[in-house]
TrEMBL record:
<dbReference type="Pfam" id="PF13116">
    <property type="entry name" value="YhdP"/>
</dbReference>
<keyword id="KW-1133">Transmembrane helix</keyword>
<keyword id="KW-0472">Membrane</keyword>
<feature type="transmembrane region" description="Helical">
    <location>
        <begin position="21"/>
        <end position="41"/>
    </location>
</feature>
<feature type="compositionally biased region" description="Basic and acidic residues">
    <location>
        <begin position="996"/>
        <end position="1014"/>
    </location>
</feature>
<dbReference type="InterPro" id="IPR011836">
    <property type="entry name" value="YhdP"/>
</dbReference>
<feature type="region of interest" description="Disordered">
    <location>
        <begin position="994"/>
        <end position="1015"/>
    </location>
</feature>
<dbReference type="InterPro" id="IPR025263">
    <property type="entry name" value="YhdP_central"/>
</dbReference>
<protein>
    <submittedName>
        <fullName>TIGR02099 family protein</fullName>
    </submittedName>
</protein>
<keyword id="KW-0812">Transmembrane</keyword>
<feature type="domain" description="YhdP central">
    <location>
        <begin position="11"/>
        <end position="1279"/>
    </location>
</feature>
Length: 1291
């Protein structure tokens, strides 16, 4: 070979010279061709415009038309510039028009004898691409061949070396997907073709609502565009922001996904299908579905990289820095993972592998149904329900569907939790490590606030653990699961203890167990929780419900043997023994029976039986001793027998009966009993746990020197002694003795053959003893004593009947008629109470009947609920048949005389005021009066006497409606109960008080014993004719309302033809009670008004106005003179006082000066003989604490002027006044002088004398004025003349 090379290097010079000439010739020929083409051919190219168009038509297979053509030379390739290029479709219609196209012709066109471009550049085209419903694609109206036929535009496009499109606008219409038209602006496109290798890049601006700038690239390999199933390659798409859901109209994702955010995706395909996908994403408000048939994953945010690849039956999925936050609050910290699943291949089973740097098992469990996992793995994951975190984790497995053949696990975990599965225990809140295979493994556990579930051992499998430390292992010797607990130390709120043991499963039996446990301390209420599940359920339930308190100390458990032979009645079969010492325990031994508290004793389970030995205990306040509870066999004998003795308060024994089934056995006979004292009881209970209704009881109770009360409404029995025996069906009372109100009474009785209970009682009762025991004012009117007999019957079907009879002979009554009687008189009295059994859950109730003689009857139906007794319906009758109202109580009475005030006094309590009002309110609610029908010849009520009375009142919703007819008052009234109540009354006539002066009993005067008024209702009262103490005052109108804490008198008026009295005021009740009243009296005729008030001939003529305001401490219905205050002003005009006795007119008499002339020196009898006439009386009066004072009371008349000052005491009815009487003489003298001098002297002198008289302020009148002191009582005033005032000194 070396020789060959040398021979080539040493070619003859001639050959080398020829080669050089050939090269030189080729160079010049090429140069000449280049120059010829550039300067000769290219300038003539425009003339070949039609030929070029035909050449392009042949190349793309479609008609082409060119409006302008030019050519130049750039680099190594000639360039054609085409203007107005249009391409027509097969029908000859114009499909695409390009204003300007630059094309560089490839030299290969000469070899291929067809136009082939080295570079094609199109600027700012508007391109429309559409896909029809049949899948055919058209680019600018030109059909793209996708049906397997060769040729066409697409093939020509891939044959060009390079195609560049700048600043284009692209519209994509897809009729096949029925999508909206997608418009891409500012589109730049570059396509490079090199044989079967094709690369492209595209950048465009989609609509803003869809995405930011779109970046799409591709690297593809394939030759025939009509056979895409033979292509392979990779696509890339990048969007800094995109709405994935909005793009679903035009793009099929390999995963169903929605959301918004940034996205970069790489898509691999081959053989016509997607083989892999990789995505970097940062999304928000997203939704993803990783495979068909899986549920969506709703995400608030998601970021990281996901990779999915499927090839040859192998699925691989991985993630890098994957973080998720689901909309339900679930969060996944950045995680790297790898998952590989391989289908079964021949005899090789399906395999799987999962590796993770850290794994949130709770999130994985919640996402399991949404991840493309093997169905077996997904099912097993759902069964285990793992929580906590594992870091790191390496799991491998293999096996057929539904069963693992092999597995291998190595993991460290924190706060791990799984549900129990098969013989595997479950747990939560545990940290530690687990490593092993299907052949066996080991585990270490520790935790705080953890729990462990042992369904194979305990019926309550999940045990809460405040502390836990355990070591154990598992294995499969001979294919059987065996779990060993080397040591377990635990503590929780129930107990602290240790355990160890072994459990070996068996396919045909519950397995073998060898378990030792010890609780150093434990809550007695939790003992049942630590009983193995092999203990009979009835026993566990009994322990759970019965041990309700106390501490269990030194509890030990030994369980060993084949569990199929539990409870090991034969000691050779195994051992089961539980012992616990109980202190301060509570034993609720059977439902419905009172608990035993303070139990100290021992609880023993051994074999099939249970024994409770209580050395001491108590039920309520009763001390127990030597109590035993024995259950011989949990499975064959479920009868619990309890025996014991007790000593303690009798009331607690009664409570024991009331709170136990014994109460129903004796028809709850003792429920209302109340007792003080002590007694003793021997008791035996036989309780079938499954049929407690068949329980048996036998008891014997003895008591002495007790106090006993059968019912709260009945009297107390003192020094009660006796013996009561009872079983589930029999009750006996023997040797019952007691005292009632100090008098002896005997009681005997018991059960009757029909199942009822009857007690007989008899004794004598004195009124004096009743008065000592009962605070009833009614008893103050009774004295003496009377014998009585009574029975108490308790029916078998429920209900109690109590009957008491007495003739009351020996009892003296000073009560008002008709209950007034002597000691010898007989007045039959009967009291009955029937308490029927409640039915259908209705509240209990009873019926009361009372009868006194033949004139009084009463009957009430009552209901007991919420600690109160309410009268549902009833009736009371006096001299009438008793009638029951449909609702409430109806009272019917007929009497010649009825003194309601006397009965009110007889029945009144000793606590008036607010408490009495409260008691009245309670009484109203418990005694709902609904109707009243009263007829009386004479009725005394509230100090008033009414004759021929007929009163009918009916309770209606919200109040009362009544009609009253009598000689004194006739009208209708309505009472409403809103707030403090409101009374509306319309009277045709209303007369109050007694006419004349002969009312000796004072019925119209305030009573000192009346209750203090605490409130008044709202009032709306009118009377067409109002008469007060026999004086007709005209029409009355009164309106008052309650506002806040005040009672306001809005309007008060009494009007008649002679005058009108109007006013308003306010009353403030309470500790600082006060009434204020503003009034105005307009009198048209003083003479007639005084005549109406009972003072005829006191004043003649005259009219007056009196107004003012007064205030006193007290209610508005009782004027309290000692605290009266205020002021008033009086103006009276044109009247004359007549001869009036001052004792009758009281203050009015002070103004009558008729008596004064008899005590003065001068004689004015011609002036005062017929009474004192006046032109005007005016002045003001100030009042303070009942003392009336005036400083400016003036009386002007033609005969004299009177000036009055001083005070009058309205409480003592006394006066201390100064009265100045000034006869009107000066003016007469001066006028007379003027007249006299007119003719005799000089008229000017007379006029001067008159003017001097006035200028000197009537010196003549003052000269004759007198001053008097008026003192003494109003009924007998004392008038004393005072010394005359000296004449005024001259000025």
């Amino acid at each position: 070979m070396a020789e060959g090379r040398l021979s080539f290097l040493h070619l003859p010079r001639l050959c080398l010279r020829k080669l050089a000439w050939l090269g030189l010739i080729a160079y010049f020929v090429g140069g000449l061709v280049f120059v010829g083409v550039r300067h000769l051919v290219l300038p003539g190219v425009p003339a070949y415009r039609s030929e070029v168009a035909q050449l392009l038509s042949r190349s793309i297979g479609l008609p082409v038309d060119i409006k302008s053509l030019s050519a130049d030379w750039t680099g190594l390739h000639p360039r054609l510039q085409l203007g107005g290029l249009s391409i027509k479709d097969a029908a000859g219609e114009e499909a695409m028009t390009l204003d300007r196209v630059d094309a560089e012709v490839a030299w290969s066109s000469l070899l291929l004898l067809r136009l082939r471009l080295h570079r094609l550049e199109i600027d700012s085209p508007e391109l429309s691409i559409r896909r029809q419903a049949d899948g055919q694609i058209f680019v600018a109206g030109l059909k793209v061949n996708t049906g397997g036929e060769r040729g066409g535009f697409a093939e020509w496009l891939l044959d060009q070396r390079q195609i560049v499109i700048r600043n284009a606008r692209l519209e994509w219409s897809d009729a096949l997907r029925q999508a909206d038209t997608l418009v891409l602006d500012k589109l730049d496109f570059r396509l490079e073709n090199s044989g079967a290798h094709h690369r492209f890049g595209l950048r465009a601006q989609p609509p803003v609502k869809l995405a930011a700038t779109l970046d799409v690239r591709g690297d593809l390999r394939g030759r025939d565009p009509a056979r895409l199933d033979e292509w392979r390659g990779e696509f890339y798409a990048g969007l800094d922001y995109a709405d994935l859901g909005a793009w679903r109209q035009w793009v099929d994702y390999p995963l169903a996904a929605d959301g918004a955010g940034g996205l970069r995706a790489w898509l691999e395909f081959a053989g016509g299908r997607i083989s892999g996908i990789t995505a970097d994403f940062a999304l928000r408000d997203a939704r993803a579905r990783l495979a068909t048939g899986l549920d969506d994953i709703p995400l608030a945010s998601a970021a990281g990289r996901l990779r999915y690849r499927e090839e040859n039956g192998v699925i691989e999925a991985s993630g890098k820095r994957l973080s998720l936050q689901a909309r339900d609050g679930m969060t996944v910290a950045p995680t790297d993972f790898f998952l590989r699943l391989q289908e079964k291949r021949g005899s090789t089973p399906a395999q799987g592998e999962f590796i993770a740097n850290q794994l949130d098992l709770g999130a994985l469990s919640r996402l399991a149904g949404r991840l493309p996992l093997d169905e077996t793995f997904r099912k097993r994951l759902a069964e285990l329900g793992p929580v906590g975190s594992v870091a790191p984790l390496n799991v491998k497995w293999s096996g057929e569907a539904g069963q693992l053949a092999t597995y291998e696990v190595d993991a460290r975990f924190i706060r791990l939790g799984i549900e129990p599965l098969g013989a595997w225990p479950g747990f939560s809140g545990l940290s530690g490590r687990i490593e092993g295979t299907e052949r066996g493994g080991r585990f270490t556990l520790s935790g705080q606030d953890a729990s462990i579930a042992l369904p194979q051992i305990f019926a309550e499998p999940r045990l809460a653990l405040a502390e836990l430390a355990a070591e154990g292992s598992w294995s499969h010797p001979e294919g059987v699961l065996e779990v060993s607990l080397a040591s377990v130390n635990f503590a929780n709120r129930d107990a602290r203890g240790t355990a160890s043991g072994r459990y070996r499963a068996s396919p045909d039996t519950p397995g073998d167990i060898d378990l030792q446990a010890r609780l150093s301390e434990a809550d007695g209420t939790a003992v049942w929780r630590y009983m193995p599940s092999v203990v009979n359920k009835a026993a566990r339930d009994w322990l759970q419900t019965s041990l309700t308190g106390g501490r269990a100390m030194d509890t030990r458990l030994t369980l060993k043997g084949n569990l199929a032979r539990f409870p090991f009645r034969n000691p050779r079969d195994g051992t089961f023994r539980v012992t616990a010492k109980v202190a301060d325990g509570q034993l609720d031994y059977a439902p419905g029976w009172p608990k035993i508290e303070g139990v100290s004793g021992e609880l023993i389970f051994e074999g099939a039986g249970m024994t409770v030995k209580a050395r001491r205990g108590r039920i309520f306040g009763v001390d127990l001793k030597d109590v035993t509870a024995v259950l011989p066999d949990f499975e064959t004998d479920d009868v619990l027998t309890i025996r014991g003795t007790a000593l303690g308060p009798t009331q607690d024994f009664l409570r024991f009966i009331t709170d136990s089934p014994v109460a129903d056995m004796i028809n709850r006979f003792t429920d209302p009993f109340r007792a003080e004292g002590k007694g003793s009881l021997d008791l035996q209970l036989v309780l079938p746990l499954h049929k407690l209704t068949e329980s048996k009881v036998r008891g014997d109770f003895q008591f002495a020197h007790n106090q006993l009360q059968f019912d709260p409404a009945m009297p107390v029995l003192t020094e009660a002694s006796g013996r009561v025996g009872f079983t589930e069906s029999l009750l006996t009372v023997k040797n019952g003795t007691a005292r009632i109100f100090g008098d002896p009474v005997s009681v005997t009785g018991g059960s009757r053959p029909d199942g009822s209970v009857l007690l007989n009682a008899q004794g004598t009762l004195s009124v004096l003893a009743l008065r000592r025991e009962l605070d009833l004012p009614l008893l103050d009117h009774l004295s003496g004593s009377a014998p009585w007999k009574g029975t108490i019957a308790v029916q078998k079907r429920g209900g109690v009947e109590f009957v008491l009879d007495s003739n009351l002979q020996g009892v003296v009554s000073s009560l008002p008629d008709p209950l007034n009687k002597s000691a010898a008189a007989i007045l039959p009295f009967r009291f009955e109470m029937l308490a029927a059994a409640a039915a259908n859950g209705a509240p209990p109730g009873d019926t009361l009947k009372l009868a006194a003689g033949s004139f009084f009857q009463a009957q009430f139906q009552r209901r007991h609920e919420a600690g109160r007794t309410l009268v549902v319906r009833g009736g009371m009758a006096l001299n009438e048949p008793v009638r029951l109202a449909d609702k409430g109580v109806l009272v019917v009475a007929t009497a010649d005389k009825l003194d309601a005030d006397a009965w009110r006094k007889a029945l009144a309590g000793t606590s008036p005021g607010v408490e009495a009002d409260k008691a009245a309110g309670d009484s109203d609610s418990a005694f709902p009066l609904s109707g009243l029908n009263l007829r009386a010849g004479e009725l005394r009520m509230l100090g008033q006497r009414l004759n021929d009375v007929s009163l009918r009142a009916v309770m209606e919703e919200g109040g009362w409606q009544a009609r009253l007819t009598s000689k004194e008052a006739t009208g209708d009234f309505v009472w409403r109960e809103q707030g403090r109540g409101r009374l509306q009354a319309r009277f045709k006539q209303l007369a109050l008080g007694t006419a004349g002066k002969d009312d000796k009993d004072g019925s119209d005067s305030p009573r000192p014993d009346e209750e203090r008024l605490s409130e008044l209702p709202g009032l709306d009262i009118s009377a067409d004719s109002f008469v007060l103490r026999g004086h007709s005052l005209g029409k009355l109108d009164l309106k008052a309302v309650n506002r806040g804490e005040m009672w306001r008198l809005e309007n008060f008026s009494i009007a008649n033809p002679d005058g009108t009295l109007t006013g308003n005021g306010v009353w403030r009740p309470g500790a600082r009670e006060e009434t204020r009243l503003n009034f105005k009296l307009d009198v048209v005729s003083v003479e007639k008004m005084l005549t109406r008030l009972g003072y005829p001939e006191a004043v003649r003529r005259g009219k007056a106005v009196m107004e003012g305001d007064v205030v006193w401490h007290g209610s508005p219905i009782a004027l309290h003179m000692p605290t009266l205050g205020g002021k008033m002003h009086v103006d009276v005009e044109s009247g004359q006082f007549t001869q009036l006795d001052p004792g009758v007119g009281r203050l009015l008499g002070v103004l009558n000066l008729q008596a004064l002339p008899r005590r003065i020196t001068l004689d004015f009898r011609d002036v005062f003989s017929q009474g004192f006439a006046f032109d005007r009386i005016s002045g003001s009066i100030q009042m303070n604490n009942g003392l009336l004072r005036t400083d400016d009371l003036e009386l002007f008349g033609p005969a004299a002027r009177v000036f009055m000052n001083g005070e009058a005491d309205a409480v003592r009815e006394t006066q201390n006044l100064r009265v100045k009487v000034q006869p009107t003489l000066s003016e007469s003298i001066a006028v007379g002088s003027a007249i006299a001098t007119t003719g005799a002297i000089n008229p000017a002198l007379g006029l001067a004398a008159y003017l001097v008289q006035k200028a000197l302020r009537d010196p003549v009148e003052k000269l004759f004025s007198f001053e008097y002191a008026v003192t003494g009582a109003w009924s007998d005033p004392k008038v004393e003349k005072l010394a005359s005032r000296p004449p005024l000194a001259p000025q």
